[in-house]
Amino acid sequence: MRLPILFILATVMIDAIGVGLIMPIMPDLIREVEGGSLADAALWGGVLATVFAVMQFLFAPVVGSLSDALGRRPVLLVSLAVLTLDYLVMALAGSIWLLLLGRIVGGITSATHSTASAYVADISEPGERAANFGLIGAAFGIGFVLGPVIGGTLGEFGTRAPFYAAAALAAANFALGCKVMRESVTARTRRAFSWSRANPFGAFRQMARLPGIAPLMTVYFVYSVALYVYPAIWAYYTQARFGWTPQVIGLSLAIYGISMALVQGVLMRPLLRRFGERRTVVWGQVFDLVTFGLLASIASGALALVLTPVAALGVVVTPALQGIMSRRVADDAQGELQGVLTSLHALSVIVAPMVMTSVFAAFTRPGAAIHLPGAPFVLSMALIVLGLAIFSRTRAGPPG
Asked: Pick from 8, 223, 226, 219: which is nearest to 133 by CA?
């Protein structure tokens, strides 16, 4: 594998590590700096995730358009440098307000995933983009394995140790990028930066004008909200439902990450050849629907671990949707498209954490009329049904 591709995949993997390592220790970290109950910690966790997502929503199209104009290399390297500093801030934070500041900075600089996806689009033939986006997903899955392992294991030695580890990884990848990263934007595909297209609302309007893109973006958004049930409430849900420790939570997330990497890195291409992009989207959502229904109702932690690989089968939806949309966008707007998709994901993260954690808190507080830690999964089931209904009304577009 060429070193620049390795750097891109490592960048995405570190993005995922940053998400995964926080999840096992976040309940304890929030209670350490703020106090209160587990339900209160879940609400603060929702606030931190929402602030991160607001920044990502506002800045992702800007960064995506900047990468179309200035190139992928400088955007990725600057993002990694600031990400290193952000992890150090989180490691030293002694109050909820410093954690909040860390999430604000992290949200602004979290363009690495979208810019990496744009790089992959640059170097891929149109018909291969969905499968190559699957490699991006596989790298994310590997990071999702390493993140919880780092977070759950180092979390036993203190809630700050995982952040120092993440800072070291980001710094090492920055050094690798400086040495091996080559620019993929050429004179033919370079496009002048425009604020009217770089702000999220202008970028949404520009993309929505393309034939068939608006309903696909809607499906992407609805699906992102539904799938965010995992990072939003998994640590809280498994503590309340099964009494899991941070190590067990980390193990469960590692199982999910391994399964996700295998599905997107190994199964994605044969699935696309067998079913095509559209049917892959449908069947992936069907698997999610079944899994959410089971997680909403089970009382066995062992069964939840068994279900984890099944849950990973649904992750084929995102790269298949990306592939469908990427083939409808010009080569000089791939960064803009990925910025828009990142903003849509960020918008879902603005909505999802507060909604999911609020539903969780409402159904787990002392004296709740119905005690149902799995209630957020019921909400996700309804969202999957909505996404399937919208997608079924879209038409297959031209391959170009």
From this structure: 8
